[in-house]
């Protein structure tokens, strides 16, 4: 007689926030492109129950949106510049180049 045990991934209890996605050790141009895509694709959408992520309907800001904002901030973009990228709605938009000391 053989028994098989299946393991399931643990599920976070309701209301518990999942851990943040780790930041890269230094932000490359490729990281910045992924971050632009993350903030544009996972943009906020108003819904009857509140503001949700328009990509996966999780509460906004979702993990990927938060990660994208943190990466773009490390790249030297200001919050208003990140908001402008989101408003433009182009996930392939080229973020401004890194400004040393910014």
The end-to-end span amounts to: 66 Å
Strand order of the largest sheet: 1-2
Low-pLDDT regions: 5-10
Main β-sheet: number of strands, strand sense, barrel status?
2 strands, antiparallel
Which short descriptors sum up this protein?
2 strands, 34% helix, two-stranded antiparallel ribbon, mainly alpha, single chain, 102 residues
Structure commentary:
By secondary structure, the chain is mainly α. Helix 1 runs antiparallel to helix 2. The chain starts with 28 loop residues before the first helix and ends in a 14-residue tail after the last helix. It is globular. A two-stranded antiparallel ribbon has the order 1-2. About 6% of the residues have low confidence. The chain has 3 helices and 2 strands; from the N terminus they run H-E-E-H-H.
What is the element layout, followed by pairings?
Blueprint (H helix, E strand, L loop, with lengths): L28 H13 L2 E4 L2 E4 L9 H12 L4 H10 L14
Antiparallel strand pairs: 1-2
Describe this structure in a few short sentences.
With 102 residues, the chain is mainly alpha-helical. The protein is built from three helices and two strands.
